Amino acid sequence: MKKIGFLSFGHWTPSAQSATRSAADALLQSIDLAVAAEELGADGAYFRVHHFARQLSAPFPLLAAVAARTTSIEIGTGVIDMRYENPLYMAEEAGIADLISGGRLQLGISRGSPEQVVEGWRYFGYQPEAGESAAEMGRRHTLKLLDVLRGEGFATPEPQPMFPNPPGLLRPEPYSEGLRERIWWGSGSNATAVWAAKLGMNLQSSTLKDDETGEPFHLQQAKQIRAYRKAWQEAGHNRSPRVSVSRSIFPLVNERDRAWFGSSGEGGDQIGYLDEQTRAIFGRSYAAEPEKLIEQLARDEAIAEADTLLLTLPNQLGVDYCAHVMEAFLTQVAPALGWRDK
Q1: Pair 257, 332: CB distance under 8 Å
Q2: How far are the Cα atoms of 29, 41, 48, 287 from residue 18, in angstroms, in the given order?
Q3: Residue 284: pLDDT band by 50, 70, 90 thresholds?
Q4: pLDDT confidence bin for 113, thresholds 50/70/90
Q5: How many other β-carbons are positioned within 10 Å of the β-carbon of residue 12?
Q6: Which residues contact 318 (CB under 8 A, 6 or more apart)?
Q7: Is this structure's pTM higher than 0.90?
Q8: Start-end of H helices in the chain
Q9: How confident is residue 314, by pLDDT bands cut at 50, 70 and 90?
Q10: Contact indicator for 7, 78 with CB cutoff of 8 Å
C-alpha cells in the first residue's frame, strides 16, 4: 500500500445532530480537513461530486482552495460525472487547479451514477446524440477531455486578435503539463475498467460495483483490478498505472468510536440495484480494534491489489473527529499493511 487518503462526500443538513449544517460549512470544513490530513501525513484529499444534492458539487473552486492551503498532499475527485461536463471548459478549470497545486491534481471522472434528479444533465444543457445512451454521452465527453489534455492546438486563431497569439492553432489555456496522466476513471464493472486501461487512465474502484460473479465484493473487485492491469500491459503504455479502492474503516480506540461505529463492522456485503437492469454489490464496512482491523484488512484481496486506499469519512461528524479517524488508522493500522514500505 503506497498511498492512503480520504474521500468525503461533503454532506450537509440543517440538523442539530450534524456538525455540517450548510453548504458553507461543507466547503470550509473540506478545506480544513485536507489541511489536517496533510499535517497527519496522509497522501490524498479526495472529494465526491453530486448535483442537485446537499453535497459537494462543482469541484474546482474547492480543489483550488485546498491547493492554496496545502503544499504536498494530492488533491482529487472521486468522481466527477461526465454527463454534466463541458470538456473544454473542464480542461481550463482543471488546468488552473493543477497549476495552483503544483501538479498535485488527481482527477477522478466517470460516466456517472444514479442521481437526485431524472436526467439531471439535461438541465445543464446536455443530451445524448441520436441512438446514444446517457452513459455513452459521458464517455464521449471523456474522450474529448482526454484529447484536449494532450495540449495540442486545434482552434483557428482570429486574423486580427485582441492579443498576440503564439504561432499555429490554439488550445484552451492554461495548460498544465502532465495532467493527462493523472486522470482516473471510476469504474463499476470489469468492462469499463478494461476500457479505461486501454485509454491510459488510472483506475478508481469504490465500495460498490456490478455484481458480475456472485462472489464476495473484495474478490470481484480484485478480479476487476487484475483485468485492468492486464489490459494496461497489453495496451503498451510506457508508465505504470495507479489503482485506488475506497473503504469505510473505523478503528475503535475510544468509547466515542465504539458508541458510533461499534456495530458497523458486524455486517457483510449487501446486494442492491442501481437501476432495473443493474444488480450491484456493496462492500462491507470495517469497524474494530486496530489489531482485529489489521487481520481483516489483510484478507481483503482488492486492498492488496491496489496501490492507493481512500478512507470514506463521515464528514458530518466534524473535522476533528474525521481527523481522529485518520490518525488512528495511519498510526495503528496502516504500518502493518505495508504503508510506504514500497
Answers
A1: no
A2: 13, 27, 19, 21
A3: very high
A4: confident
A5: 23
A6: 19, 20, 29
A7: yes
A8: 23-40, 60-69, 87-101, 134-148, 190-198, 217-235, 255-261, 290-298, 301-305, 319-332
A9: very high
A10: yes
